[in-house]
Design goal:
Largest sheet: none
Number of strands: 0
Order of helices and strands: HH
Oligomer: single chain
Radius of gyration: 26 Å
Distance between the termini: 62 Å
Helix content: 40-55%
Shape: flat
Structural class: mainly alpha
Length: 102
């Protein structure tokens, strides 16, 4: 996929949002509100489509469907019985705060 190929989604999304906003605004009699909402929703839709196109393009380049394997952390839980065994009071403890005293 070319580098700038997914830029087209933003104006297309905004155009669709404006068209939908004009239609709903004409139907409800509040054109200003629905036109503004249509532009906002269309912009969000365009950005979301750009992101999806980028993800799909990266998967195509790698020749995979989902990308690399993601390793999930257990939150830093230690297998030792004492979580603060290597912490020093003079160094501020394990929280990294520093400034411990005498």
């Amino acid at each position: 996929m070319k580098k700038g190929a997914n830029v087209v989604f933003l104006p297309v999304g905004m155009g669709l949002g404006m068209a939908l906003g004009v239609a709903l605004g004409a139907a409800t009699g509040d054109l200003a509100l629905w036109l503004a909402l249509g532009v906002a929703i269309g912009s969000g839709l365009g950005v979301a489509l750009m992101g999806l196109a980028g993800v799909a393009g990266q998967a195509k380049e790698k020749g995979k469907d989902g990308g690399d394997t993601v390793h999930v952390s257990d939150g830093g839980v230690s297998s030792t019985s004492s979580g603060d065994a290597n912490c020093s009071a003079d160094a501020g403890g394990c929280d990294g705060g520093g400034g411990g005293g005498d």
